[in-house]
Structure formats: C-alpha cells, structure tokens
Design a protein that fits this description.
By secondary structure, the protein is of the alpha/beta class. 27% of the residues lie in helices and 26% in strands. It folds into two domains: 5-86 and 228-258, Periplasmic binding protein-like II (D-Maltodextrin-Binding Protein, domain 2, 3-Layer(aba) Sandwich); 94-214, Periplasmic binding protein-like II (D-Maltodextrin-Binding Protein, domain 2), CATH 3.40.190.10. Helix 1 packs across helix 7 (233-241) and helix 1 packs antiparallel against helix 8 (245-253). The chain is elongated.
Length: 259
Amino acid sequence: MRKIFLTLCLLSGALLPGGEGALRIADASRAGINALQAAALTLAQESRTAVTVDRVPPREALRRLKAGQADLIVLEHGNLPEKTPAVCRLFAAEVLAVYVHSSNPVKGIKRKELKEILTDKRPNWLSLHPLRQTDIHRYGLSLRAPGNGLGESLLGVENFAQDIFRLNSTREVILLTGSDAESLGIGLLMPDLPPEVRTLRINGVLPLPGTVASGKYLLCWRYYVLAPEKPLAAAGKYLELMKKISFARELEKFGFMAL
C-alpha cells in the first residue's frame, strides 16, 4: 500500500515551540486534494501547529478516526459510514463534464449512453440524434492531466477506447471541442466556457453547484470532512480555514468544485 504524507513541522515531527500541538489528517479522496495541504501549511504558520496530511484508503481513514489516531478525515460520499460522526461536512467535488460544440443539436445524454460512446471503437451521433450520421470525435484527458481517470472511475470501466484523443488539460479538451462540430470532450467541469462550447445534460441534469451537492448530477465524486463530536482546537481552526474563500480558490485551482 502506497502512502503519501506531508508533515509540516520545523523540528522533525516534534511539537513546535509555543505551538498548539499536532493535527492529524487522513485524506482518503480519489487522487488526493492539494488544497488540504495548502490549508495545513497556513495553519502551521499561523498557529505553530504540527500538521500531518496522510494519504490512506477509506477503511484506514475510518479506522484511524474511530481509534483516535486521526483528528480529521476526508471521504468520498460512497464511503461514508452508516453512522456519521458529529461533524460530517460536504466541502468539495470532482465533477466530470461532457462538452460538445455549440452547433450540436444534442442537448443531453444518459450515463449509460456516455459509457457506450467512450468504450465503443467507432461511435456515431446517429444513436443520439436521427439527423446526424457522422462519427463522434472524442477528446479526453491524458495520464498527466488533472482529473485523469475520473471518467473511468465514475462510469465503472477500466479503460476507455484506445483511439480517444488524449490531451494534457481540460482547457485543451475544450479548445479542440470548440473547433470541431462533431466533437465530444470529457474533462473537469470548467467555468467561463467559450461561446463555441456547451455542456451536455447527464440524465437530464446539468452540472451546477446545487445538482452536484444534492447528488442529482451523477458524474461527480463529492468529498466530506469528518471529525469527532469535540474536535481539538487545532482541528476546529482547520475546519474554519476550509470555509474561507482562499481555500475555495485553492480547490478550484486544482479542478475541484468548492461546495
């Protein structure tokens, strides 16, 4: 099991002189949330608190919280326990968007249809619109791109079709989608789309903060921060940092939706 951990201390893990103790965070998100580390650095600098952000699997995060070995944990919505602790706050989501050229008459697509299009060898628009008989030109994310693997994990497939054209960022996906009337691009949800590109509805639902938070929009992982009923003072300060605009901006910088 691979673990990636960040310890923000000045004295090799010892408590900082004059500091407020140590804060242990277990991050069990899909690919790690960099904004958690940024907030940890802020807390370490402001309160002289030794903060550790440890990447662990969901079961290990829950075990640590129950055993008192973690002060805060981060879980995806599908891994929440039946009985949640006193603090269970939705704060972010990884949202997969499906982009098409604005001239495309198709307004929406079902999740099952999207899965078929992305795994088929040569999909055609005819299955979605009776007057379009052209091939679908598919654009997706490369292994180096933020959000890579999100579509596969959300749609429950190991790999998409090999001939999907892979790009190094969602912005590049959007750029090519806007230059190709037969395109279908998948990537992270991005604000401020150019006029040549629009987002498809999935099962009749657009990806908006409200539909993502409620779970009505299906193509997303929603992330919660969990803490015991009486969190440590340092944990309380960290939770307050997570409510600030600076934390939301840090989330958005790495392609997450702040909620």
